[in-house]
Specification:
EC 4.1.1.31; 892 residues; PEPCASE_His_AS; phosphoenolpyruvate carboxylase activity; two-stranded antiparallel ribbon; magnesium; 5% strand; PEP_COase_bac/pln-type; 9-stranded parallel β-sheet; mainly alpha
Length: 892
């Protein structure tokens, strides 16, 4: 299978040829020729040489078995093309590294001292989540990563692997393994499976990548950088709508994480012991190092003159005891001597620093860098917990649980009937009292018992692994101050919130974080936070902590109000929150619930951070990473380093550079944007929520019912059993539209709004001068380029009400055309992505491989919905969903 000539990437051509050879050798010449015919005719159709009928005729000749093979072939080519592009940096941001950011800041008069001062108080965290849009099995991703490693050897001109295989033969072997590996999961994922997956990324990618990245940053800064970038995780702690996440999953993920990070440290200490063979006959050591060596009581006579090795023997023994204490298992390699467990990561770090200081006292080449420096950095970043685990639950659950606790304690019989002022007064009284509400003798609902078990397990975890293991409690559907106070009441039940005493403020060991999701919630966010900080005890608590986090949700705001209104409401919320935090004397930390698709906040993280409102970043930002984007951005240590560095450099620039716009332009552009957003909102709401039969149209023209059955996540597709769009999760909403190539959540309503606005000169001025609008339109342009309404039209026969289908689809087509035409006019282009040739080439490469998949998917959906029960039909649908998602990349 050769790559089409529209790409010049030699890796894609090479891997495509290898895949073709594998198909021919393992599945026969006849199958290869049938697949190659469909491929070549699809490429010719993309070039305009042939009509679409020729593709259809090739597909019709496939039996069900060959059809499954065809889908796998096209899926694997897309996967290999993604790999090749990632290696060549096609998706990388220009100048998105720390060195360029430092040079850019220095050119504007900001020296390294200003950068270091910001980094001292900075916090940047990618948070890995389990949202189910990663349709590939972990086995497929592992084979893909092995191919990436082998391609790196090939780049360096290495002819053989370490085991003696020819590199190109080893690549062919891995491609053959991909071809013969089942692509679909047979069983639905459980939370434990999702935990395994995220731990694999943390263990195999983040653990090696972060210390190496910091070593590069230290060189660029000319000093040791503070450990400002760390990693977070939601999996095992995010209970919102997922009944399978509970106290046991929380314990499981933290125990497994501790096991992984401690095993990494043990191996690191073991390697240092092999490396630091320094003899006191040839080099002096500090008294502190000598004491550490003596304390180890290593009986080995051969090490009598090797104090570093003896000291490391003691460190290993204490770390092995820590491993045993925290995991309940014997360490992977037994210790030579006995030792007491470390009380916390700081004690382990202190011993490592003692070794480093002794080496530094000798100066020379051993004074900096190396394994020891990277190990100290790892302890700074990962502690004994590996990744900070967030908790999340819906505010409605908290209301019910707190209401039940209050009723059983005799405080109030019906908390739900109280108005907001009454709730706040009551909850503040409870928080001021040391008395607990829960009684071991009362009978509570399963929901209440589960929520109490969660906060108690969180308290146990902090005592066991350190305070860094859980720091955030996200509250979905936050609408009021009482939503935040309710969480503090629950935390108080586990000793994680303690009332203030005398002049001392209260203490909260876990921060309650509101998640503002809908358009209305985002608009009300500044008022909620102002009222929150106005509570004397809360204001004192926040100032003592120094910062307060607010999470803003992209997914539900998009489903609620459409793409443009969503991103504008989020931008405006950040803008409006900044002065509220400034008045309170508290640093704002925004947590962006960005997703893989543009409809869920996806797109370039680098551009998105730079486009944040002035004063809203301040060196602190957290961003969710989910679904297929985790594999795309963090599939290997190299790609992880590239994407983490882009996030870090953008945060530096957004925090330290002067605003791109003057106050007058901000006001002028903001007024224009408010009018455009209002029009886009009206257009979107009229179609999605105001059109009779729209929800039935959506459910039938897209493979939503089939996606809901995919075994790609532990969380149900809908929050309730209703078929209302309001109750559907944002992920299947966006994912379904992408499969049918409509991608409506990423653009609908924008064209109507821009056309109605009319002032083209102002729009062009805005997009050229304002990073926010430039980023917004760039993301929409990518979605418009990936959508194809000519292909989407093939899905129309799936809709039972043909008249309604034609009418609704006609409105969608008109909306796409207006979005397309307006964008080209504003950006002064003759075609989409004209100014982004690399991305244009990437998308064009995939189009010939996606169209046949869509056509085949339609045919299979027709047969499936008509009642045909051949299991290969269902498998074909699921494979096509997998293949289309792989080709589109950020589709969910």
């Amino acid at each position: 299978m050769a790559a089409p000539s529209i790409t010049q990437n030699p890796d894609i051509r090479f891997l495509g040829r290898v895949l073709g050879d594998v198909i021919r050798e393992t599945s026969g010449e006849a199958l290869f020729r049938r697949i190659e015919y469909i491929r070549s005719t699809s490429v010719d159709r993309a070039r305009g040489i042939l009509s679409g009928d020729s593709i259809a005729s090739g597909l019709e000749s496939l039996g069900l078995d060959d059809m499954l093979a065809f889908v796998r072939g096209f899926m694997l080519f897309s996967m290999l093309a993604n790999l090749a592009e990632d290696r060549q940096g096609v998706a990388a941001e220009p100048e998105a590294d720390l060195a360029h950011a430092l040079a850019r800041l220095e050119a504007k008069g900001l020296d390294r001292a200003a950068v270091m001062a910001l980094l001292e108080r900075a916090l940047i965290v990618p948070v890995l989540t389990a949202h189910p849009t990663e349709v590939r099995r972990k086995s497929m991703i592992d084979h893909r990563n092995h191919i990436a490693e082998l391609m790196a050897l090939r780049d360096r001109g290495v002819a053989e692997t370490a085991s003696g295989d020819r590199v190109e033969d080893a690549i062919a072997r891995q491609v053959a393994l991909l071809w013969q590996t089942r692509a679909l999961r047979r069983e639905r994922l459980f939370v434990a499976d999702e935990i395994d997956t995220v731990l694999a990324y943390l263990r195999e990618v983040f653990l090696p990548a972060l210390p190496a990245l910091y070593a590069r940053w230290d060189r660029a800064l000319g000093a040791r950088a503070p450990s400002f970038l760390r990693v977070g995780n939601w999996i095992g702690g995010d209970r919102d709508g997922n009944p399978y996440v509970n106290a046991e999953t929380l314990r499981l993920v933290l125990a497994r994480a501790a096991e992984a990070v401690l095993a990494y440290y043990l191996e690191g200490v073991h390697e240092l012991g092999a490396e630091l063979s320094i003899s006191t006959e040839l080099a002096a050591v500090t008294p502190e190092l000598a004491a550490l060596a003596e304390a180890a009581q290593d009986p080995g006579r051969a090490r009598g003159d090797e104090p570093y090795r003896r000291a490391l023997t003691g460190l290993y023994a204490r770390l092995a005891a820590t491993y045993q204490a925290l995991t309940g298992q014997a360490p992977p390699r037994a210790a030579r001597v006995s030792g007491e467990p470390y009380a916390d990561p700081a004690a382990f770090r202190a011993d490592l620093v003692t070794i480093a200081q002794s080496l530094r006292a000798g100066a020379g080449a051993l004074a900096t860098g190396g394994k020891l420096s990277r190990l100290i950095r790892a302890v700074d970043c990962f502690g004994f917990h590996l990744a900070t685990l967030d908790l999340r639950q819906n505010a409605d659950v908290h209301e019910r649980v707190v209401g039940e606790l209050l009723a059983h304690a005799g405080v109030t019989p019906d908390y739900a009937t109280l108005d907001e002022a009454e709730r706040i007064a009551l909850l503040r009284r409870e928080l001021a009292s040391p008395r607990l509400l829960a009684s071991p003798f009362a009978r509570y609902s399963d929901e209440t018992l589960s929520e109490l078990a969660i906060v108690r397990a969180a308290a146990e975890a902090q005592a066991r692994y350190g305070a860094g293991c859980i720091q955030i409690y996200n509250i979905s559907k936050s609408e009021s101050v009482s939503d935040l106070l309710e969480v503090h009441v629950l935390l108080k039940e586990a000793g994680l919130y303690r009332p203030g005493e005398g002049e001392a403020p209260p203490e909260a060991r876990i921060m309650a974080v509101p998640l503002f999701e809908t358009i209305a919630d985002l608009q009300n966010a500044p008022d909620v936070m102002r009222a929150w900080f106005a509570l004397p005890e809360i204001g004192a608590l926040a100032r003592a902590r120094g910062h307060q986090e607010v999470m803003v949700g992209y997914s539900d705001s998009n489903k609620d109000g459409g793409y443009l209104t969503s991103v504008w409401s989020l931008h405006r919320a950040g803008q409006a929150l900044a002065p509220v935090f400034e008045e309170a004397g508290v640093t704002m930390q925004l947590f962006h619930g960005r997703g893989g698709a543009v409809g869920r906040g996806g797109g370039s993280s680098f551009a998105a951070i730079l486009a944040q409102p002035p004063g809203s970043v301040q060196g602190r930002i957290r961003i969710t990473e989910q679904g297929e984007v985790i594999a795309a951005k963090y599939g290997t240590p190299e790609s992880a380093a590239t994407n983490l560095e882009a996030m870090a450099s953008a945060t530096l620039l957004a925090s330290l550079e002067a605003p791109a716009l003057s106050a007058a332009d901000q006001a002028r552009f903001g007024d224009a944007m408010a009018r455009i957003s209002e029009a886009a909102f009206a257009s979107y709401r009229d179609l999605v929520y105001g059109t009779e039969g729209f929800r039935h149209f959506f459910r039938q023209i897209t493979p939503l019912p089939e996606i809901a059955g995919l075994k790609i996540g532990s969380r149900p597709a809908s929050r309730t059993k209703s078929d209302r769009i309001e109750d559907l999760r944002a992920i299947p909403w966006v994912f379904s539209w992408a499969q049918a190539r409509i991608m409506l959540p990423g653009w609908y309503g924008v064209g109507d709004a821009l056309a109605a606005f009319g002032d083209m000169a102002l729009l062009r001025e805005m997009v050229e001068a304002w990073p926010f609008l430039a980023s917004t339109l760039a993301n929409m342009e990518m979605v418009l380029a990936k959508s194809d309404l000519a292909i989407a039209e093939h899905y129309l026969p799936l809709v039972e009400d043909r008249a309604a289908a034609e009418a609704i689809f006609g409105r969608i087509k008109a909306g796409w055309s207006r979005a397309h035409d307006s964008l080209l006019a504003i950006t002064r282009q003759t075609r989409l992505l004209e100014k982004h040739p690399s991305l244009d080439a990437s998308i064009r490469l995939r189009l010939p491989y996606i169209e046949p998949l869509n056509l085949l998917q339609v045919e299979l959906l027709k047969r499936h919905r008509a009642g045909e029960d051949d299991p290969r039909i269902r498998e074909g649908i699921e494979l096509s969903i997998n293949a289309i998602a792989t080709a589109l990349r950020n589709s969910g």
